[in-house]
Amino acid sequence: MLPYATVGEAAAALGRNLTAAEMAWFRYSAGMHDFWLYLHNLVFLLVVYTVAPLPLALVELLVPDAIHKYKVQPKVQVPVADVVKCYKNVVKIFIFAVGPLEFLSFHTSKWVGVRTGLPLPSAWEMAAQLTVYFMVEDYFGYWLHRALHSRWGYEHIHSVHHEFSAPFGFAAPYAHWAEVLILGLPAFLGPAIAPGHIVTFWLWFVLRHIEAVELHCGYDFPLTPTKLIPFYGGAEFHDYHHYVGRHTNNNFASVFTYCDYIYGTDKGYRYQKRQSSNSKGISTYSTCTLILAINS
Ligand SMILES: [Zn+2]
Ligand SMILES: [Zn+2]
């Protein structure tokens, strides 16, 4: 809720006229409690997981030949029943895990300094904070994901996410509720270290989860804009992690590749890439037995 009754008061406090974006923000948020602004995140994430995987799922269902050559594991077809199963799980996870987490984390967000007022952040401020958020989440997410591949972590929690050895967009959030909470925590670390505006906070979660959908989409498109991002992993990188499954000791990072490179957990993946340099896709790699041998 903004501490100004009128636009004039806000302009006087800022010492300048409000920009068009700030005027829009004033009209939208002036009378709204910060808690409701914070809960917008829940709606945005549900929209992301409903809408973002949909175009590719429809193309795969209706005209699969149009994109078949880009499929990382071309021999695997995703049954519609699996898509429905994943989406039902997403709704359940939102009700029982993400929703409660949002409620409980509101006061923490206020405590660390996520603000809702004016002025709005500049594009540079948002870009710098988003970069920090991605780097911090990627690093801590790497270690937590690696811990989930311990015998206990895998058997009791992480095996749910690995149910699909050939991932697809709707399978991105398909996981045990405990995993959603555990891997969700590093997403709050960046905003705690470099707190920004609630708009940046929303954008961070939306971008991170669109990235998660892309990571699990099962297609390696050559002109994906994310290929321009240095050290970006992408769909093929994470697809390998699912392909090898339980026994993999490779590709734990969710966004970038540098952690796996530094800590030596990409050796099996890189070996297979070299082996398949004359063919396309993980499915054309040599046998799974060989992969397991390299990983162990
Ligand atoms: Zn895993
Ligand atoms: Zn995954």
UniProtKB/TrEMBL annotation:
Its main location: endoplasmic reticulum. It holds the Pfam family FA_hydroxylase. It comes from the Eukaryota. It catalyses: a long-chain fatty aldehyde + 2 NADPH + O2 + H(+) = a long-chain alkane + formate + 2 NADP(+) + H2O. It is a multi-pass membrane protein. Residues 131-265 form the Fatty acid hydroxylase domain. One of its GO terms (biological process) is lipid biosynthetic process. GO terms for molecular function: aldehyde oxygenase (deformylating) activity; iron ion binding; monooxygenase activity. PANTHER family: STEROL DESATURASE. This is aldehyde oxygenase (deformylating). It comes from Canna indica.
